[in-house]
Structures are given as C-alpha cells and as structure tokens.
Amino acid sequence: MLKTHSVRQLGARDTTAVLRALDRDPVVSCMVAARVQAHGVDPNRLQGELLTQGRVEDSLCFSGVNLVPLSGSPQAVRAFSDRVRRRPRSCSSLVGPADLVMAMWSELEGTWGAARDVRPEQPLLALTGALRHAPDPLVRPVQMHELDVYLPAAVAMFTEEVGVDPRGSDGGRSYRHRVADLIAGGRAWARFEHGEVVFKAEIGSVSALAGQIQGVWVHPEWRGRGLGAAGTAAVAAGVQAGGRVPSLYVNDFNAPARAAYRRVGFTQVGTFATVLLH
C-alpha cells in the first residue's frame, strides 16, 4: 500500500534540515534562503510559512507574499496546492522552477481565477566564472540622499516590466519604503548622468551563497549604447566581491537582455516561471 504524508508546516526544530536543503542549489533557492537566513524558520518572523510533505530533503515550498515551490513530486505539488487553496490568497505571484510553478498553477487556477500574466519560460542564469565584460566604473551603490532621484527610475522599470504602477493605492508610500530599504542595504545600484538615472539594477535577494539581480533597466534615451551589459557587470562584480554567485532570471522573449547577459558571462543553469496575480 502506498504510504502518503500530509503537508506539514516547518518550525525552528527543522532549521538545520531546511538550510541543508536550500544549500543544495543556492541559485534556485536564493529568494527563500535569504529570508530563512535572515529571519529563521518561525512563520511569524519569516512572514510566511515553509511547507513540506514527508521529508524536507524531498519537498519544500514557501508560502508568503510570493508562493515559491522549490522541490517536490507531483503528489507534493498537489498537496501544497490543496493547503494554500483552503486559505484566502495572500500571495501576489507564483515564482520558481518552471515545472513546479506551472504544475501548481494548473491546480490553483480554477479557484484563484485568471492570472494577470503567465511567463512559463524564464531562463535562470548564473555567473560562475570570471566576468567577460568590463564593469561600468560609473555604476555604484545608490546613497540614501539620492532616493528621490532614483525612485522614478525604479517606478518606470517596474511599470515597464510588470505592466502596473507599483505605487498602488497608498500614494506610493509602501513602494518608497521598499526602495529605501534596498538603498539602505547597499542593494540598489545606478549610474547617474546630469542628475538622472540612466542605468539601474538591484540585488533583490542576498543569501550566504548567492545574490539575485533584478530590476535591470536602462533609460530609453540611453539604450543601444551597451549600458545594460556594462552596468550588469558592475553589479555582478559587487555580488562576487561578497563571495557570492550572481544570478538572475530573464523573460525568454527579451532577446536584447539575454544577449547582454551572455556578454557579461552569465550562463543558463535552469528555467523559472512566474505567474503574476491580480
């Protein structure tokens, strides 16, 4: 008779097993590992819950502001989906390994309704060797007093990439606070010209072993000059200086960005998918 296991919420006693599981593929797990290493496994501090079905080594899913399935059999994916479906939806997206995300979305779509956007194939890239492109020497960490200059570029990038204004219904206070936190942590990088941002990127998640770059953007008037590759190289060099592997994921249809990342030295190590919810 086939033995089955119910979904279990992980707690402090599972910390060692969770960290060991996350370390198996630090590029894939960077978003979740960064949270766990900073806040532990306790759901209240983590602002989300870590779930497993059976053993942590075999299945793991984070459910919080994002829903991130990291490993598991088809049976585990169905069990995770059943678990989150029973509660009011709190996540704004599903993101992670493409096979798991798309399988989970097929289970949830009937309950949650149509997504705002589904991106089923996003190459996951990592820079595991030396940079192949010279970093832009003018790209540097943004300083806190530059927040008001940096913020419009962050809004423009988010709106262009995701299709909605990130400032939401609170006049932009929450988004401003999020960007300020990135700046305070040295994770927002930019090149300024004549008091305007012409290149920007952020290190969205930083774990002990990897740093995930996000929000790469070049001002429309500066595109086609190589700023994307040189700027990304500068940010990647910053990640490497901290002893971490730089990584990012990119839409498969964004040919210019993929070409720029290849010039920097990034290679594909997996495939992510993202489901953006309303």
UniProtKB/TrEMBL annotation:
What is the name of this protein?
Answer: DUF4081 domain-containing protein
Report the source organism. Rhodococcus antarcticus
Q: Which PROSITE patterns match?
A: GNAT
Gene3D superfamilies in the cross-refs: 3.40.630.30
Q: Which Pfam families match?
A: DUF4081, FR47
Q: Which residues form the N-acetyltransferase domain?
A: 137-278
Entry-linked InterPro entries: Acyl_CoA_acyltransferase (IPR016181), DUF4081 (IPR025289), GCN5-like_dom (IPR013653), GNAT_dom (IPR000182), UCP21603_acetyltransf (IPR016794)
Coiled-coil ranges per the record?
A: none
